[in-house]
Automatic annotation (TrEMBL):
Sequence ranges assigned to domain Xylose isomerase-like TIM barrel in this UniProt record: 29-282
Origin organism lineage: Bacteria, Pseudomonadati, Bacteroidota, Sphingobacteriia, Sphingobacteriales
Domain of life (superkingdom): Bacteria
Organism expressing this protein natively: Mucilaginibacter roseus
Keyword check for Isomerase: yes
The name this protein goes by in its record: Sugar phosphate isomerase/epimerase
One of the record's GO molecular function terms: isomerase activity
Keywords: Isomerase
InterPro entries assigned to the protein according to its UniProt record, in alphabetical order: IolE/XylAMocC-like, Xyl_isomerase-like_sf, Xyl_isomerase-like_TIM-brl
Length: 286
């Protein structure tokens, strides 16, 4: 049986930062390629005119997913509560865009700054975990007030020292203890951190509401060493019915360049990356 999923692509594959002027080039192109959804990476909400984007989504028959960018200064585990408040303000702006664009959740590694990877004493690690849990519970309440969920993303060990695996994400969701707390898994990070992609997906289970994919080297799906059969077994086992988004990055990424470390193109062109990746995924999902 075919997987009952839709396919999306991240704006980060093409541009950084996404802004209102990005719409004219990206939306018709992405729709023409055959994607169902566009995953909008919000680096700076002030660069985005929400109603214009909403109109363009309708014009090109695309649905939106909203992913946050947690670069320097956005850290819910910081020692300074003022930093938390800045982060809450950013998240609230993103949640408002989610509500405006009729998406169902806000996604990303929103517990701390991407690239925050340190060897810590157990006491500090416990304190930061508890800070993240407390602050994300507040985020979940903000989301629920808008009828939204929150999809928490584990990152690999080089990009986070807090949440690295599906098991970590499940533990965080359980500690948050709010119905809006859900999980996003990213195949790039799973390829580094998980002994089994299939088991990681099963571990996330019904809490998994979004999946991002690329190859092991963050390149075009189908061109590398990823065990796509393991993905399929895991998704079939949990009866996944969400979206599968291609996520990689242009080397011109602004917000997360130091963390994602993509210094050169990973395909002949970003358009070819998207087209060939989608063709592979559609065949794989049959």
């Amino acid at each position: 049986m075919p997987l009952p999923v839709k396919f999306g692509v991240s704006t980060w594959l093409f541009t950084s930062p996404f802004q209102t002027s990005s719409v004219a080039e990206l939306f018709p192109k992405i729709a023409a390629m055959g994607f169902d959804k566009i995953e909008i990476a919000v680096e700076d909400p002030l660069l985005i005119d929400g109603p214009i984007v909403k109109a363009a989504l309708a014009e090109h028959h695309l649905e939106a997913i909203v992913c946050g960018a947690f670069g320097p200064g956005r850290d819910l585990t910081h020692d300074d509560p003022a930093v938390h408040e800045d982060c809450f303000e950013y998240i609230e702006q993103c949640l408002d865009l989610c509500a405006l664009w009729d998406t169902k959740f806000f996604a990303g590694p929103m517990y701390s700054t991407v690239g925050k990877a340190r060897m810590l004493p157990p006491e500090q690690r416990k304190r930061e975990w508890e800070l993240a849990v407390t602050n994300l519970r507040r985020v979940c309440i903000m989301a629920a007030n808008r009828g939204l969920d929150v999809a928490i993303e584990p990152l690999n060990r080089f990009e986070s020292d807090l949440v690295n695996t599906a098991a970590d994400a499940v533990r965080m969701v359980n500690d948050i203890d709010h119905p809006a707390a859900k999980i996003l898994l990213d195949g790039f990070h799973m390829n580094i951190e998980e002994a089994s992609i299939e088991n990681a997906i099963k571990t996330a289970g019904e809490k998994l509401i979004h999946l991002q994919v690329a190859e092991n080297y963050r390149g075009t799906p189908g061109t590398g060493q990823v065990n796509w059969d393991a993905y399929r077994r895991g998704l079939d086992a949990i009866k996944y019915q969400g979206t599968i988004s291609i996520e990689s990055f242009t080397p011109d990424n602004k917000e997360l360049a130091q963390a994602v470390c993509i210094w050169h193109p990973l395909a002949e062109s970003q358009d070819k990356f998207a087209k060939e990746g989608l063709a592979f995924l559609k065949q794989w999902a049959q």
